[in-house]
Amino acid sequence: MGGLRCVDGSYLSVIPVACTDSLGVPYEITLALHRDGTPYGMVGERCGWFLARLARVVWDARAGRGQAWAWPDPDDRFPGDEPDGELFAFRYRARSQVVGGGELRCQLRTLAVWVPAGDGGGEWRVTRRAYVEAWGPAGVGMRAVLTSGELAEFVESLVTEAEGALEPQELARNPIEGASSLERR
After folding, report:
1. Does the first or last residue of the chain, that is N or C, have fewer Cβ atoms within 10 Å of its Cβ?
2. What is the model's pTM?
3. How many angstroms separate the CA atoms of 12 and 180, rounded?
4. Is 53 within 8 Å of 126 (Cβ atoms)?
């Protein structure tokens, strides 16, 4: 299960849940959010493909591909040309288009940090971090601040777990007699 320790000390668990068709065959995933083990929201309807792509582009950025090579520290390398921006935003979506079941998003922020030197001087060091924020239906938010390596590991763990949730089930004995039954009449 993918999870993050947040800046307030709480723990955000992100669990891929398989979406199934009318026969119970998994075809995509949605993300279940839990705050310290308590259900917090459902977001990202059918987001599996996007997560797999995101995992790939974050690893590519860490390797220095694209504009990311300009950042000397691999932990500051994120995909995209802009120094700040949004990597993803998964929201709750209902058929009635009512918003309010939760949100999980990741924004990049560029920060300047003063690094003091032993002689009383120092220098500014510019870093980039991913701010992963989750919001529950009650409007209470959580935030984790991640390096690109931490974000890559988090997203990769979600993809691995999602792939496990999407493994095909045994369909030889369909509980409903019909088209997918192995018996011929």
Report:
1. C
2. 0.82
3. 40
4. no
Residue 140, pLDDT score? 82
Q: How far apart are CA 167 and CA 177, in angstroms?
A: 23
60: exposed, middle or buried (Cβ count in 10 Å: 0-12, 13-18, 19+): middle
Residue located via tokens 């949730």:
165
Instruction: Please answer whether residues 140 and 32 qualify as being in contact, where contact means their C-beta atoms are separated by less than 8 angstroms.
Output: no
**Max CA-CA distance within the chain?**
89
The average confidence (pLDDT) of the chain is 85
Residue whose token pair is 């802009």: 82
For residues 1 and 14, give the distance between their C-alpha atoms in angstroms, rounded to a whole number: 7
Is residue 129 within a helix (H) or strand (E), and if so which, with residue range? strand 122-135
Q: Say whether pLDDT at 115 is over 70.
A: yes
pLDDT for 110 equals 93
H-run or E-run covering 12: strand 11-20
